[in-house]
C-alpha cells in the first residue's frame, strides 16, 4: 500500500494524543482509530491509554501512533510530540500539560460551545490549526457520545484517515453490545466532520511546544521531614466540575419538600442546606447545589419523590449562576 499523502515520512510517525476525563470515551476513540488504521487501511499502528485505578472522572490520556506498513513501531512510549491533540473537556485547557509537545504545524481540536476563545490558547504555536467543535451539544442532540463527534472532527482534518473506514469500525464496535447506538453514533460522527469552527490567529508561540515529562516532586534530597504532611486533604479545595458530562441537577424550591432523600444518595455531599423560616414548616431546607463538588451522577434526580430536582443541559455559565456555595466564606 502506498503512503498516504499527509502521513509523515522519514523518522516520524503520525501521532495523536487524546486529552480527556474518564467517561467521555477517549480510550474507545483511540481504540477504534488505531484498529481501523491497522486492520482496514493497511497501516502500522499502536494504541494505549493512561489513567489511574478509577477511570471515571479522572484524567485520561489516550495515545495513537500510526505509520506506513513497511515501518515497524518499536516503541510504546507516550506520545510527547503529537501532530494532533484532541481535548474532550474544556476544563483541561487550564492544565499546561494539555498543550505540551504540540508541533508548530500541528492541529489542536477542543470540545467547547461557541463563544470567546480562552486566553490560555495563546500558548499554542502561532502556525498551529485550532479547531473548536461543540461535541457535547452534538452528542446530546444525536443521543450519542462526545467521542464519536471528536473522532469525526479529527478524521475531517486529515484526509488519509478515511472517514468511511473509521466510521465502519466505529459502527462495528457498538453493533454487538449496543446496536441501538450505531445510527446515533454515525450521525454524531458525520456532524463532527462538518460542524466545527476553525479559529485563526489564536496561538502566539513561534515553535514546537516543549515536552512535559513528569518528574518526581520529591527525591531523597528534597523530600520533607518525616511525619510532615505538606498538602493535607482538603474538601474545600476539591473540584469535581470537570467530571460532568453535560447534565446537571437543578433545584425547583417550590416543589421541594426537603425530605433529604437526595442527600442520602449524593456521593459527594454537594447539596447545600440552610435553616428553615422561623415558625415555618421545615427546620432545615434544601437551598441549592454547590456545582463545584457535583460530578453530575444525577442520583439526586432519580431519588427525588416530587420532581423538585431535574436534569438540565449544562449551558456555559449555568452552574456558576445557580451555584449555592457549601463554604460561603471560602474563596474559590
Round the mean pLDDT to the nearest integer and report it: 88
Tell me the span between the first and last alpha carbons: 55 Å
CATH architecture of the largest domain: 3-Layer(aba) Sandwich
**Structural class category:** alpha/beta
Total E-strand runs: 11
Query: Which fold name fills CATH's third level, the topology of the largest domain?
Result: Pyruvate-ferredoxin Oxidoreductase, domain 3
Number of helices: 8
Number of domains: 2
Radius of gyration: 23 Å
Order of neighbouring strands in the sheet with most strands: 2-3-1-4-5-6-7
Global geometry: globular
Spans where pLDDT lies below 50 across 5 or more residues? 1-5
Determine the fraction of residues in helical runs and give it as a percent range.
10-25%
Under CATH, the homologous superfamily of the largest domain reads: Pyruvate-ferredoxin oxidoreductase, PFOR, domain III
What percent of residues are in strands?
15-25%
Overall description:
With 332 residues, the protein is of the alpha/beta class. It contains 8 helices and 11 strands. The chain folds into 2 domains: 14-198, Pyruvate-ferredoxin oxidoreductase, PFOR, domain III (Pyruvate-ferredoxin Oxidoreductase, domain 3, 3-Layer(aba) Sandwich); 235-322, Alpha-Beta Plaits (2-Layer Sandwich). The strands form 3 sheets. A 7-stranded mixed sheet has the order 2-3-1-4-5-6-7, covered by helices on one side. Strand 2 and strand 3 form a beta hairpin.
Properties at a glance:
332 residues; disordered N terminus; Alpha-Beta Plaits; Pyruvate-ferredoxin Oxidoreductase, domain 3; 22% helix; 7-stranded mixed β-sheet; single chain; alpha/beta
